[in-house]
Amino acid sequence: MSDLVSRRNFLASTTLAAAAVLAAPRRAHGMLVAPETKPFADWKMKPVMDFSRSPYAKLRQVPVAAVTVTGYWASRRKTNVESSIPSMREEMVQHGRMTNFERMQGKSKEPQKGPMYSDSDMYKWTEAVGYVLQSEAQPDLRKVADAQIREIVAVQEPSGYLNTYYIEDRKPLRMQQHTQEVGHELYNMGHYLQGAIAYYRATGDPTMLNAGIRFVDDFLLPNYGPGATQTPIVSGHPEIEMSLIELYRTTGNKKYLELAGYILHGDTRWTIKPSAIVYMYCGIPFPQRTKLEGHAVRAMYACCGATDYYLETGDPAYWKTLEGLWQDLVKHQLYVTGGVGARAEGEAFGDAYELPNARAYGESCAAIGNMMWNARMLAATGEARFTDVMERALYNGINSGMSLDGKLYCYRNPLAFEPATGDVIRNPWYDTTCCPPNIERTFASLPGYFYSTSKDGIYVHLYDASEMNWHLEDGTGLKIVQKTEYPWKGDVELTVSPAKPHEFTVYLRIPSWSAKNDVRVNGKAVDGAKPGEYLAIRRTWNAGDKVELAMDMAPRLLQANAAVMEDVGKAAMQRGPVVFCMEGVDQRAQNQGLNLSNLRADLKGETKVRFEPEMLGGVVVLEHPGRVMTEQAGDLYRVGVAGAGENTATMLTLIPYYVWANRAPSAMQVWIPFREA
Amino acid sequence: MSDLVSRRNFLASTTLAAAAVLAAPRRAHGMLVAPETKPFADWKMKPVMDFSRSPYAKLRQVPVAAVTVTGYWASRRKTNVESSIPSMREEMVQHGRMTNFERMQGKSKEPQKGPMYSDSDMYKWTEAVGYVLQSEAQPDLRKVADAQIREIVAVQEPSGYLNTYYIEDRKPLRMQQHTQEVGHELYNMGHYLQGAIAYYRATGDPTMLNAGIRFVDDFLLPNYGPGATQTPIVSGHPEIEMSLIELYRTTGNKKYLELAGYILHGDTRWTIKPSAIVYMYCGIPFPQRTKLEGHAVRAMYACCGATDYYLETGDPAYWKTLEGLWQDLVKHQLYVTGGVGARAEGEAFGDAYELPNARAYGESCAAIGNMMWNARMLAATGEARFTDVMERALYNGINSGMSLDGKLYCYRNPLAFEPATGDVIRNPWYDTTCCPPNIERTFASLPGYFYSTSKDGIYVHLYDASEMNWHLEDGTGLKIVQKTEYPWKGDVELTVSPAKPHEFTVYLRIPSWSAKNDVRVNGKAVDGAKPGEYLAIRRTWNAGDKVELAMDMAPRLLQANAAVMEDVGKAAMQRGPVVFCMEGVDQRAQNQGLNLSNLRADLKGETKVRFEPEMLGGVVVLEHPGRVMTEQAGDLYRVGVAGAGENTATMLTLIPYYVWANRAPSAMQVWIPFREA
């Protein structure tokens, strides 16, 4: 503490201007100097992941600031900026997340509050603000964030160490093996670096980033790593890997990439319990993984880091592993909502095909990790199968994680719900509040996932009314305007305007769910569109060229693989990228006091589609013919199986899954039992 | 330790005969004297639960030794005595369960081994041996058990305390609140007392029982309880309650009943976390419970203790609660196998209707607890609904817990299984080895659950080839011989032979699953048999009178309540008391490399029944028409729902659930998806 207090006195006694204080100079022999590694000076107009120098990236993301969204996502993003981000900061402040920093400067007498990973919540929030500031000037928000960053960097120790939990009595625990396994020190720093990079790319202010570099340069690298005099590293909760690689991308200093590679490989000097190797999804060489297992968020973040490592190194063992894990994901582990993580126990992946509905864990953070991973796989390949998974997670399992008013969050995202259980799924605060700022950073960064460039053109990944102002990789300026009412309608008109007439390829994503597609360029049909692929349209483009895409928005009944035992005899409804659910409050039968579980969908019924502008923020609602089965007299088991006669006709009303639980508590089902007859 | 060592020296230096040493006299001022409370001297021919003086017991169990079983259960019980009990003792010895006692006498240098509840495993094993010795002379087994008891009582401390875990460094933790909540001290003593009582009732040797009485009289009662100078008690893992009440029944000393009542009521002086009150199923007054929740074994044992308390006190608040909890059990929480406990997480009851199949926990101990509870509810009421649950658990969810060779045990008893998960369900040993000796004591005590007496006659609960030699409550000798091939055939011939012609009622259980029943006395039809009730046949009975019962053994397709979302579109097959399952190894389709999950049962198909004497110890096998659905190409989700055309006919082979996993690892399903068409 004496170091910290003297540092505070030092800072208070200087006459440095606020800007200089923010630059958080480095301390050496009592003097503060800048860190050795410096971020690239061209901080402006950077993407979420900067693949511009990544040799194994086929695609490069377009900056967040290059895309202005005006359609479907605009309202969610407006809520995010105006409601979620400010109210979440208030929640975090109220729950002591900032006094943890203030007490270390003697500004607060509150005790340490929150779990050991609480610092990361502030950092993730800062990252969200970074993306907001990349897109738009928000002077008030910037002021709050600047001040917060000042409080955070002020408690960095001369050694470079920065953490509000492992201090005082807990100081001896720092970076011990057990602490590394469960203590989230490097997880915190990973989120710190991601927040710092996003903030730097928004403002050019290196204050937070420089302090992060000092943590890595001064504290971590000299003392921890593979060297004989160094202590091993195990990341415990993967996150540091991808952040170190983004730090490499931000500074050009290869040591960060090498450190990430070392961590991904694991260090055999430490013996780690087999159960921890499964749970933590780290501690053995990443290429030894053969399936998704253990803690779902850890596994997804590890896959992100490993894909980032592949994108920089091209290590074929990594790619082979990543491809195998992705196959495991889509064949055995992925909820129809794009969520992952079947088990509350260990917040974990289950066995293959273990996808319970009411008990689904489907943590919002895991769905986000899934999207982040697939975005990286997409960059490596340009293959639309990864975009399909991204989109599925985004519109459903991530989107469900924030209420329409932006102030309530899901931790779990189950696919069925019964209010009699007493569970409250949407809450303003969780003591482990990882999910809320994670959703906030995702929505804030979303424009950065719309497009990528490649050597030969531009990829269109996501459809929404929007305007992109960017350039091709050869420097030719390019503007693309999307007009669409996606995801409610399947027609998209893209106006492609290069700065000058220019030959390049527009890669148009054809979603795997769209069976029939009509593509036209300036009114003329283009052949070759295949579901689940990018349609390459190569020509000389002139300003104002129009690409029209008409996707197949017919509602589709989905069935799960027969091995998903809980979904046998049930169907899910998807229309476009949106997965639907049945909520009790909407069912006529429910209004008559009947149980949601007694409703059956008629397999051969025709689904009616209508848009309800006043309902749940404006959504498409589906109506599907069904039956009300005769209520059972309370018996758990009875002889015989209900025959076709015991039912009356009804209409089932389905709403988008992501808006469930925005009204009174009500039963909900994504997978709806059907009747063949 | 010095106390213990000096005690050992004292014992070694005495010239007392072995019998006198076994009597384990009490120590007072350096002298060993008998405990104040003494068990009733008439130890012979006692039942499992001695309701003979219980004012609110309508029925009284018939002693284990009064019934000789020669039919279905005889072979399981023979395996139990000849294979399970000896091999389990070897396993326990190998895993240090006895060196824990020996090291406290300086006879072993091994460290303490096993979890904190390891002593209880030896006690439960001793209880099993007690029931065996009640039924039959097994001199070798008795010798081993006698020696083991000698080792156990030798480590009792002068204070009366007896436990091999809370010694040395852990001694200060004894009976602290946290230890009481999680440490199983009283759980261990509960099993000790049950073991001691069963052994006393087998042999008349009070050695073990007296030491248990000393634990309660000298250590527990003076120091723990409601008094101002006493430390509160929370049982942590309920078990002590029912054992104290059986101790009351064994000694007539009401203080044990009062202590059990105090524990069941909870002590408000200690604040217990709400989550612990749920998990432990204790810590608040039992009558405040409104549903089954938390750890399933704890809840079932708590219900046993509470029912025992009702049987002695008639407290209407207890009965109201027990009836409500029982309704919760049969309406929301009971697996079709009689197992309970849906969740591995917390080994817990789930929400209402939460009954997953592959992930079912269904711990063997919980199914046993369920049977033990229902046997008590039956004693309170004479109502056959409780016998129905007992029988369902016994033939299925308990019976499955031990392999046919008696050497492998299930901890979990799932209702579906996929070998690709890598789970190994049957194992010779678990470090928490609660289930194996629990199954052993259940099978050993089973004859004690066949009959009860009432004021006006005799109740026949369970059917199996057997001979009962006992007497009515008025003292009239009574022999009943059952001839039957139950559970494979539904015909039972009971020869009722009172010692002299005598008027009394034979209460014949009509199982709830038997829709049509034919009852005859000496060939003459008797009306009034109703499924799920006891048929009262009152008459003057003469030696050799024959009662014939023909039950309805038609295989029955069962469906679960629509609210059990995992069982929608699936059916289970039951025949008599036996629940069936489909095991992959038996399916023709499986032999062609098809997946069990692609099989469908035809709802309207006719089930064929055959007895296979050479298969799995001799079982009925069912064949039911079904379909092999077209295998999916590995997709997790696909558009459209499989139509009627995509299948080929097959025959599904079903075996009794309890014999699953006795061959090569194979997929298994109790709930089989059906097709209406």
Give the tally of structural domains of chain A.
3
Instruction: Classify the secondary structure makeup of chain A into a structural class.
Output: alpha+beta
> What composes the largest sheet of chain A?
7 strands, antiparallel
Shape, per Cα inertia axes of chain A: globular
The stretches of 5 or more residues of chain A where confidence is low (pLDDT under 50) are 1-26
CATH architecture of the largest domain in chain A: Alpha/alpha barrel
Task: Look up the CATH topology of the largest domain in chain A.
Answer: Glycosyltransferase
Q: Give the helix proportion of chain A (percent range).
A: 25-40%
Cross-sheet strand order for the largest sheet of chain A = 4-10-11-12-17-14-15
Rg of chain A, alpha carbons? 26 Å
First and last CA, distance of chain A? 74 Å
Count the E strands of chain A: 27
> How big a fraction of the residues of chain A is strand?
15-25%
The top level CATH class name of the largest domain in chain A: Mainly Alpha
The average pLDDT of chain A is 93
Assembly form of the protein: homodimer
Biggest chain contact = A-B, 62 and 62 residues
Work out the helix count of chain A: 18
